[in-house]
Amino acid sequence: MIEIPDFVPHAPVPADLIDAYRDRVPEDLVELWQQYGFGTFGEGFVRVIDPRAYEAGIGDVLGKVTGQGIAIPIMVTGFADVVTWDPGDGVTGITYRSEETTGLGSRVSTFVKLTVGGGAKHLERKLDWGLFPHAVAKHGALAFDESFVFVPLLSLGGPKDVEHLQPRKTIEAIRTMVELQGVVEH
Fold first, then answer.
1. Which of 4, 72, 132, 156 is the least crowded, having the fewest Cβ atoms under 10 Å away?
2. Of residues 113, 93, 103, 108, the one with CA closest to residue 26
3. C-alpha–C-alpha distance, residues 42 and 28, integer Å
């Protein structure tokens, strides 16, 4: 697994979670869990999360309709985007604020390497990261279970500026966006 110099650990990944997901996720994700645990990287923007908690909280609204119909949430961003693993498609970013999806690589390690190597430029190109450092400067660092959300949502005419970003609980924010905008199918 690649070194992630700015990884900030939040908690170790329980052995029972690794056992439960070992046959559902790629080995490079298992290695990341074992080496780093749950935590943040990419200047605090990307969070390695507990897929059980997110499958329970948003599994029914992940919108996977292509391929094998499998989308396992493995990471989230500071803007309540979800990064999923699909054994047929690889790593996908679901950007609820813009109602889009983007391919992030065929392997988890590809996404991590590109994020570590490309930093802000890669995050901006793939996940529209640009306002994140400004939101942190204005509102402070997020709690591990929080993300910044546009209020009102962009889809409801809200402006895309830091003044309209507010911290919210990530799972609840995603459910609210889906309730108001619909599922982002992929």
1. 156
2. 108
3. 18
155 phi/psi in degrees, rounded to 5: -65, -15
The pair of three-digit structure tokens given for residue 169, joined into one six-digit string: 């609980």
- Contact predicate 74/48, CB 8 Å: yes
Q: Measuring CA to CA, how many Å separate 86 from each of 14, 35, 67, 165, 181?
A: 22, 22, 8, 30, 23
Question: Is residue 71 a contact partner of residue 92, using CB atoms and an 8 Å limit?
Answer: yes
Residue pLDDT, tens place only, 118-147: 999 999 999 999 999 999 999 999 999 999
- SS3 category, 129: coil
Q: Which two tokens stand for residue 54?
A: 């997110």
Say what the pTM is: 0.95
